[in-house]
Task: structure prediction
Amino acid sequence: MPQHRDELSHLRARCGAHGPFFGADYNPEQWPREVHAEDLELMGRAHIDFVTVGVFSWARLEPEPGRFDLEWLDAVLDDLHSRAIRVDLALPVASPPPWLGVLHPDSLPQTRSGGTLWWGSRNQFDPSSPAYREAARRITRVLVDRYADHPAVVMWHVGNEYGQLSHGEHAARAFRDWLRRRYGDIDALNRAWGTEVWSLGLRDFEDVIPPRDTPYIVNPTLELDFARFVSDELLDCYLDLARIIREKNPHALVTTNFMGFFPLADYGAWMEHVDVLADDHYTDPADPATRLTASLTHSYLRTLGRGRSWVLMEQAVGAVNWRAHNVPKTAAQNRLDSWRAHAHGADAISYFQFRQAASGPETFHSALVPHAGPDTSRFRAAAELGEELAASPLAGQFPGSSRVFFVHDWDSWRASAGRGRVSEALDPITQNEAYYSPFFRAGERVDIGPSSLLITQDDAADGALADCYDLVVLPHQFLLRPALVPVLERFVGSGGTLLIGPLGGVVDQDLRAHLGGTGGGLLDLAGVLREEPWPLADAVTITAVDSATAQVHDFVEVLRTTTAQARWTMTQGPLSGRPLVTRRELGEGIVWYVGGLLGQGPLQAVITEVAAEAAIDLAPLPEDVELVRRGEHVVVLNHGQSLAHVHLGGQCVEVPGEDLVIGRDR
Ligand code: GLA
Result:
C-alpha cells in the first residue's frame, strides 16, 4: 500500500482542525463510568480532540476466550463522538490476557537461555505463535466488525510499540521459513554465514536454530539475519491485522507507534506500510543532550514520511516512572518539547496518558490529569498548551526540503554491535548524534534515513541526487551495500559533498569483510586505503594542515592516502605520520573521510569546514537556543532562563527565556 499522500493532513482537514490534533492515550477501562463523565468535561477544557483508546484493554474486552464485553466501549466511543473527539482505536494485541498463556503456554516468549516470559506484566507473546496470532485476529475481527463505521473512529492503532521477540520453537520454525525465502538453498546460506569458520556447516534449513545461549560468540550473520527476521516477523504481525481492517474499510487509516531509533525494528522497511507515521518519544529533562536526541529522532520520522506530517503518539507531560531517577518536565519544558515535535512535522501531539493510573505499574507515571486532579498547575498548563497549539500556523505545512542527508541503515547499526567487534567505543547512535551536533547547534535541518531512500531518489532524479542534497553524511556506514557506491560517486561527481565517518564500508550485507582495504569501494571515493582499525589505549595528538592541534581518543584507523590530501595527521604515538582526516576532490565535488573518534571540538571544526564547502553555514546559535524551520516558518525555542537574541531574515529577534517565537526568515 505504498502512498505518499499526507493522510494526517487530509484527516485534520476533514475534521476541521486548524492546529495539530492534541490528545492522549485514554484508558477508560481503568475507571468507573462516573469518572468517564468528568474525563469528557476535562478533555473539553484541555482542547483535546484526539485520543487513543484501549491500548491495553484486551482482558476487559474478551474476559474469556471468545466471550466479548463491548458495551462499555460502545458507550465510551459514543460519548467521545458526542464531544467531537476523534478516536485512534487500538487493537489491544500488545498484551494478551493471562488466559492465553494458561491455555496456550507455547504462546509465551522464550529467552535465549530457554526461560519463559510469563504473564504478570505485559507484552508476553511470541510473535510467531499460531495461538497468539489467531487470538489477535479474532479480537481484531470483532472490533473491526463493530467499529469500522463508528463515526468517532478515524484511525486504527495496531498493537503498541512492536518490539517482542522469542527464541523458542515457533520462532525457529518461522526463522527457517524466512531463511528459505532469503537464500533458496542451504549452500547459499552456508556461504553467506561463512559457516566454514568453527565447523558450523548446516546440512539443511531444519538444522538452523535462533541465536540461543552458546559456549562462545554466536556467528554474527546468524545474529544479523535473526534481527532482520524479528523485524519482518513483527511487521507481519502488524500487517496480518492491518489487512483485516483494510478488507473491511479500504479507506481506513492504520498506524502503529514506532520508537525512534529502535534496535528491534527496521522502520526503513516498515514505513511503506503505515498510513500515518507515529512515534513515541520521551525526553529526559535531566539530560541536556535530550534536545538533540529528540531533534534527530523527529528528523528521522519526518524523513521516513518523506515530509508527510506524523503523530507524536506518546510523550510524558511530567515524569516517567521507568528511569532510575524520574525528574519531571516543567510545564515550560513540556511546551517546548511539544512545539519542537510540531515544528518537525508532528501534527498530532499526544501523551501517555490522559488520567494518571491509580494502581498498577504506572501509578507513578505522569499524566495530563494527575492524582491530585484538575485543580493543579499540571492540568492547567496542559490545557493552556492545548489551546495554544490549536491556533498554530504550522499545521499542515510541508517542512521544506533539507540540504543535508544523513544515512542511517538499521542493519548497519545492528551489524556493528555485538561481541567480537573492534571496539565498543564506536556506537552508531552516538556517532549519529556527534555528527548531527554542529547542524543542530546551527539550526540546519537534516534528513536522516536509510540509504535505500538515497538510492530511490537517485533513480528518480535520474542520477542528479546532487539536485536534492548538497551534503551527504555517513557517520557509521559499517555495512555497505555495493549499490550505494555508484550513487555516491554520481552525487559527488556532479558537485555534491560527501562526509564519511570511521569504519566506513567494513563489511557487506552478509557481514563478510570487504577485502583489499577499499571499504567495498567507499574508501576509493575518499582516496584513502585502510590498512587496519586501531583502538587506542590513550588519546593521541593530531595536527591540522594549519598547525592546530587536538586529540583523538579511543579509536583510529590506520589509513594511507592514495588520491586524497591529509587535513589532520596523527603526530604522536605508534601511528605518528598517518592521516586521520582527509579530503579529496572528485569530479565537481569533494569527499571527506574521518578515520577516528574526534572529540566534539575538533569534530565540530571539521564538520563546519566540510559544510562550508557545500555552502552551508554552521554558525552556532546562542547557547540553549534551538531553531526549526517548517515551511515558511521558523520556530525558535529558547531553553535557557535568560533572553536570547537571534538573527532572522535580517532582523534581530528577542526570545524570552523558556519561551518560543515563531517567525519567518525570508
Ligand atoms: C510506552 C508505552 C505506554 C506507556 C509508556 C510509559 O511508551 O507504549 O503504554 O507504558 O511507555 O512511558
The mean pLDDT is 96.
